Amino acid sequence: MADPAVDPARRNWLMITCGAGAVGGVATAVPFVASFTPSERAKAAGAPVEVDIGGLKPGEKMVVEWRGKPVWIVRRTPEQIAELPKNDAQLADPQSKRNPSELTPEYARNEHRSRKPEILVVVGICTHLGCSPTDKFVAGPQPSLPDNWAGGFLCPCHGSTFDLAGRVFKNKPAPDNLEVPPYAYLSDSRLLIGEDKKA
Ligand code: FES
Q1: Could you tell me the pTM of the whole model?
Q2: Atom of ligand 1 nearest to the CA of 159
Q3: Residue whose CA lies nearest to ligand 1 atom number 1
């Protein structure tokens, strides 16, 4: 009789590390949900998710699933952090004042929208109609983006753009910044997504 245990390799889709500019791997990973064990199904339904970010290098992104949503974790470079304040005048809600109780926990109501400046944690779902934006980490002129692009995300569905703090640019279909989920640091290299009481 076949071993019902889930192949550990399949679980690895929960922690997909992508290089700068790469597209996240959630879309290809979703079919594996059917093979979850009961405890994994409970996790997908809402339990907090623990993530090791120790191997995440500057400029890289990883994706984990929490409550059926893709959560992006990006380790920003010092240069990317330095660019964030320069975006403010072009953003719809630079201080994250809109719907703060739903979109931005108190500890992320700052310029970088995160507990630590270098680590961004956001739900990778566009606030317009729910598409998953694409990584556009490389700065500079490129198709569908302004010439002064400093790096961020482009939603391919209707062209909304977000900076590397998940803040939406003005005059785009998306009304709000990307959601910051509740999260806490268990250590320098371990994050808990979905729970922030342990901070
Ligand atoms: S769903 Fe992202 S711009 Fe419409």
Answers
A1: 0.79
A2: 3
A3: 129
